[in-house]
Design a protein that fits this description.
Structural class of chain A: mainly alpha
Number of helices of chain A: 9
Oligomer: heterodimer
Distance between the termini of chain A: 20 Å
Strand content of chain A: under 5%
Structural class of chain B: alpha+beta
Shape of chain A: flat
Number of strands of chain A: 0
Low-confidence stretches of chain A: 42-60
Strand content of chain B: 25-35%
Mean pLDDT of chain A: 88
Mean pLDDT of chain B: 88
Radius of gyration of chain A: 22 Å
Number of strands of chain B: 23
Number of helices of chain B: 12
Largest sheet of chain A: none
Largest sheet of chain B: 7 strands, antiparallel
Low-confidence stretches of chain B: none
Chain lengths: 314, 518
């Protein structure tokens, strides 16, 4: 029933992707580390009055600096890893003849893939490559937990999950969660950058190199605005599925409850950004809190409490 | 007057965005214990366990309603206040929106260069032509053309009204959803019942008594249920080699109101994820289990056969426990009857494995069924007036010495136990039962429609941008070398979402070159 060759290839593919992401993380971290501090440059100009001396050692041929070369390599490798990552999910699906998100390993892995793709899309429009390490780190943590701690052998779905709604409901949850992850990272960075902009002494190490607070805020908002309707759709699709599977569309099962809470907090974030007194860091905190609720929903509810969604567990 | 001011201020406070936001976060916070603590609604048994484990804390939490968060007064208070606040916010917004729909786009500002988006050029066409071309280009926008005192022609245009419409639809749909949910809760019900496969009687939705458990809506007393009957002809479960369930399928016959009169039955398949939808309610397959069948041959030769459902103890191996009870036949004297009642109680394994005489189950399917049972004789306590579980014997009867163990044995199908008085108890075989839920919720469709509207409204309000564009075509001053026209374009996005720039750039490029457009 399960093609074990394909599932073995899927595992290889997954492990390769994981290893490459790790390299990406290191490259991005180095890129960030070697990026010149823009504030210091300004100080030098102010102090010396003359042109800044060329940065010896970091300027390489072709006019690209070392950090830029590191970052570009990292992005190319990210694309490669994302392809392998996608292949690992595809092979899982082919091996089991079902959608490749039937348990927590596959679900977590798919969320990470969405986060990576969302990140690559963000890169096309925004000049934020040098903060790649901050996106890769939480993504890799999640991927590691999913792949190494929650791994399960490829197997068919249990009867309760056999419905075309698993394609609709779960894929919406994956899509939204992956995009929310990148949005959450942008808000965390915003919360570091904002106080730094007000007072350069605060977060003096990390702050200067981060993108401007206003653009981080806008990025976080646009990603959440994209993901929130998908999340809403996922919850509604889940309710329709629950109606035909469990005899009620909503029953305050722990997963349903925490999804409701996350939805309310995200709704709060969208409102907070338009409310006097809540703009800025307060609303960013709300966005971060909402993402933490999503993480809580993924791990705590599936692994600790026992509800109707627990079968998706380990 | 002071009262009025107080009321007005309270209303203003309640309907302000800040209050709504605080209520929203309060709602999220209040729902949290519903996920962290077991709830009576979904896990009544775990609430009981919590009481046993924390006998000091549990009653306190219970008094605060923390085991029934979603039915508690404080939770209801939060969402009722939130919705009142919402009404107070939506009514003026709807009025404002209706007014805006009728209003013309605002006058072109004097200085377009001050706007966030701005472009300028000089063209050969006359101001009239520029504005005419612009009007063509701005099809789909709400436009207004004006001629200013100095002879300039202007056009003001606005687009994205659907954003606010989507916003209003989203919020109104949320309220409609709450109403539909409440309606369903008032007039709906939920009942559970166990049906034996092959049982000719089946189950009829004729009253509350037909159910094993029944949760009525506030306005349901069980007298107005729409009748229907369901029979389970057979039930099949298949399992993977590792014991994981693969499929459940029940062949059922059912009668709706018309069939009941005609006496006809219709056939259907009942599966997980595929319920049987009838006018009187929807029938869901929620569980299954085994009912071992025993035949007792009494000393006088009379036989009685019973197959009571046993309760599944282990959901993986389907090891079950239960008690099948017998009354001695033909005994009318209640005193005598109370000394000769029998109960066969113990464990059932669909695929038995033995460790000495200890039996366990190693697989959920019927590969090698066996029972490990005690036979109890005496007074079962049926007439004591106390309610009795069908899954166990009344322990107090055993403790009081009125019900005694007379045999303990493991049996495979066909094997029997002989008691000292000549009574024989045979394990005949195994039947299957399915647990079904009947749900009736007249608000369901309303909730679905509201849900779709929520989604549509949300999509519109988050994706559509409300934006404005103005154009002013000013004729060149008298005496200029050629009759050229100065065209200025300005743009403003009225929402906090960025991203108008690109659209404005292409739009301005078209507007500033009216000749090349066609």
């Amino acid at each position: 029933m399960v093609n074990s060759n394909l599932s073995t290839f899927s595992d290889w593919s997954f492990n390769s992707a994981l290893a490459i992401y790790l390299v990406v993380l290191v490259l991005h971290a180095a890129e960030y580390g070697f990026t010149r501090n823009p504030d210091r440059k300004r100080e030098l100009v102010a102090a010396g009055g003359a042109e800044v001396a060329p940065d010896l050692g970091t300027t390489i041929t072709q006019g690209r600096t070392l950090p830029e070369r590191l970052g570009r390599t990292a992005v190319s490798l990210t694309v490669l890893a994302a392809v392998l990552h996608g292949v690992s999910l595809l092979l899982r699906g082919l091996a089991t003849q079902r959608v490749p998100w039937g348990n927590m390993y596959e679900f977590g892995s798919a969320i990470c893939l969405v986060a990576v793709v969302a990140w690559l899309v963000v890169l096309r429009k925004h000049d934020v490559r040098h903060i790649g390490a901050f996106v890769m780190l939480p993504m890799l943590l999640l991927l590691f937990v999913a792949g190494k701690l929650l791994y399960v052998e490829a197997a068919p779905l249990m009867p309760a999950l056999r419905s075309y709604w698993i394609t609709i409901h779960v894929s919406a949850a994956i899509l939204a969660s992956g995009v929310f992850l990148v949005s959450g990272v942008a808000s965390v960075l915003y919360l570091i950058r904002l106080p730094h902009e007000a007072d350069p002494e605060r977060f003096a190490v990390m702050g200067p190199k981060l993108p401007a607070a206003a653009s981080l805020d806008r990025l976080a908002y646009r990603l959440t605005v994209f993901a929130f309707p998908i999340f809403t759709f996922g919850i509604i699709a889940g309710a329709i599925w629950a109606e035909s599977a469990w005899g009620r569309y909503w029953g305050w099962d722990p997963k349903e409850t925490v999804s409701f809470i996350a939805w309310v907090i995200y709704a709060g974030y969208l409102h907070a950004r338009a409310t006097a007194g809540w703009r800025g860091s307060r609303s960013a905190w709300v966005n971060v809190l909402a993402f933490l609720t999503m993480i809580f929903n993924l791990f705590f509810v599936n692994l600790v409490t026992t509800g109707l969604h627990s079968y998706a567990g380990v | 007057m002071a009262t009025f001011a107080f009321l007005r201020n309270t209303w203003r406070g309640l309907t302000s965005m800040r209050t709504a936001l605080v209520l929203l976060f309060l709602l999220a916070l209040a729902a949290m214990p519903g996920a962290l603590l077991p709830q009576r609604l979904t896990a009544g048994d775990k609430v009981g366990k919590y009481f046993e484990e924390s006998p000091n804390l549990a009653p306190v939490l219970d008094r605060l309603g923390l085991f029934n968060v979603f039915g508690s007064i404080w939770f209801s208070a939060i969402y009722v206040l939130l919705f009142i606040s919402l009404v107070g916010c939506l009514i003026p917004r709807t009025a404002e929106y209706a007014k805006q729909m009728r209003a013309k786009p605002v006058l072109t500002p004097r200085n377009l260069a001050r706007l966030p988006h701005h472009a300028k050029s000089t063209v050969d066409s006359s101001p009239e032509d520029v504005v005419a071309a612009a009007r063509e280009r701005l099809r789909g926008w709400r436009t207004d053309v004006r001629v200013e005192d100095d002879g300039s022609h202007t056009i003001s245009a606005e687009k994205g009204f659907l954003r606010e419409a989507g916003n209003l639809v989203f919020h109104f749909a949320l309220m409609a959803m709450l109403v539909a949910i409440a309606f369903g809760k008032m007039f709906g019900f939920e009942g559970q019942v166990i049906i034996h496969a092959g049982d000719a009687q089946g189950f009829c939705n004729s009253g509350i008594y037909a159910y094993d458990s029944f949760r009525p809506g506030l306005r349901v007393d069980g007298t107005e249920l729409q009748p229907f009957c369901v029979r389970v002809n057979d039930f099949e479960a298949t399992f993977l080699r590792n014991g994981q369930a693969d499929s459940f399928h029940a062949n059922v016959s059912y009668q709706e109101a018309a069939d009941l009169e005609a006496g006809t039955w219709q056939q259907a398949g009942l599966q997980v994820n595929s319920p049987l939808r009838l006018a009187g309610g929807t029938v869901y397959l929620l569980g299954h289990g085994y009912s071992p069948r025993f035949t007792v041959t009494f000393p006088d030769g009379q036989k009685r056969t019973e197959a009571t459902q046993w309760q599944t103890m282990n959901t993986v191996t389907l090891l079950s426990q239960g008690a099948t009870k017998f009354d001695p036949p033909g005994v009318t004297d209640p005193e005598k009857r109370r000394t000769g009642q029998l109960a066969v109680t113990g464990l059932f394994a669909p695929t038995a494995a033995f460790e000495g005489t200890l039996m366990t189950s190693v697989f959920p399917d019927l590969r090698d069924p066996a029972v490990a049972v005690d036979v109890m004789r005496g007074d079962l306590g049926n007439e004591s007036g106390k309610g009795q579980s069908i899954f166990e014997i009344d322990k107090s009867m055993v403790d009081g010495g009125r019900l005694k163990k007379v045999a303990r044995q493991n049996l495979r199908i066909g094997e029997e136990i002989a008691l000292d008085d000549g009574t024989k108890i045979r394990f005949d075989g195994v039947g299957r039962w399915v647990g079904v839920q009947v749900g009736y919720d007249p608000g369901r469709l309303g909730v679905l429609i509201a849900g779709v509207l929520v989604l549509l409204g949300l999509g519109a309000s988050l994706s559509i941008k409300r934006r404005r564009v103005w154009l002013r075509a000013t004729p060149a001053p008298e005496g200029a070398e050629s009759a050229r026209t100065v065209v200025e374009v300005g743009g403003l996005a009225r929402t906090d979402q960025a991203g108008y720039g690109e659209e404005f750039t292409t739009l301005a490029a078209d507007l500033l070159r009216p000749g090349k457009e066609r």
